[in-house]
Design a protein that fits this description.
257 residues; alpha/beta; four-stranded antiparallel sheet; 10 strands
């Protein structure tokens, strides 16, 4: 069942188009990833869905409700949380204070939310009285995700969760994202690490200059030569073609005894 539908959306920064004629969908229970180079429109897409930018054309629907012109706080209340690029935690506030801010409209369940956050991220319980700015990069990313989960979202938007993190920490974060999905939260993920994103996701979209140029199941995109060359840094060997034969090399001379 479709949870999120973006239909022929356009967003502009002044006169400059950031995304145009963008159509994507996310089904309930899926992990969907958006891939593309810097400036392709991935972050703008997430900001449009979460109400931080509004489309000048097209629309966004969440569980059948048109959210195209809703303010961001109303979209959070409907069940969409956004983990922004760069984490955006409050460095002077403690871990628990950061988490409590994420539950600003769920005050009656803050205690339950904290327990769920600490179960997913045990290190945050140990660090709960520390200022957010004193955490490591990986711990700050965990805090940003946990803060978004405090709003009890049904759809979680994540913008570059692996940015600046060591490979071992990235693996921990992605394992936790899989657990979050298994607990019933649908994920829409923007990620420069295309290999990790496609290993995690069910489906993917590739954006170029604000438009979708490729979409498919994640495992198919992972094998697609265009994706492998552009986003996985792989060299694709050309097929061997000889005159009169396709993809077959001419046999060599017979061996002589």
């Amino acid at each position: 069942m479709t949870m999120l539908e973006v239909t022929r959306a356009q967003v502009r920064y002044g006169a400059v188009p950031a995304i145009h004629d963008l159509t994507i969908s996310v089904d309930r229970g899926e992990i969907v990833t958006l891939l593309g180079a810097n400036g392709a429109g991935k972050t703008t897409t997430l900001r449009m869905i979460s109400g931080l930018h509004h489309a000048v054309a097209g629309g966004v629907r969440f569980d059948g409700t048109d959210i195209s012109r809703m303010p961001a706080h109303s979209i959070v209340e409907l069940g969409i949380s956004h983990v922004p690029e760069g984490r955006r935690i409050f460095p002077q506030m403690t871990v628990v204070e950061n988490l409590e801010i994420g539950a600003f409209h769920k005050r009656h369940t803050t205690g339950e939310g904290l327990e769920r956050a600490y179960e997913l991220f045990p290190i945050l319980k140990q660090r709960r009285k520390q200022q957010g700015g004193n955490l490591s990069g990986g711990e700050q990313q965990m805090l940003a995700i946990a803060r978004a989960l405090m709003a009890e979202p049904r759809l979680l938007l994540l913008d570059e969760p692996s940015m600046g993190l060591a490979p071992l920490v990235v693996q921990v974060i992605f394992d936790i994202l899989r657990t979050i999905r298994d607990q019933g939260v649908t994920l829409l993920l923007v990620e420069q690490n295309a290999a990790k994103a496609l290993e995690l996701a069910d489906r993917g979209y590739v954006l170029e200059t604000g438009s979708i140029v490729l979409q498919d199941k994640a495992d198919i995109l992972l094998r697609d030569d265009r994706v492998r060359m552009a986003y996985l840094g792989e060299e694709i060997a050309p097929a061997v073609v000889t005159e009169g034969h396709d993809d077959v090399a001419e046999p060599g001379p017979e061996p002589v005894d």
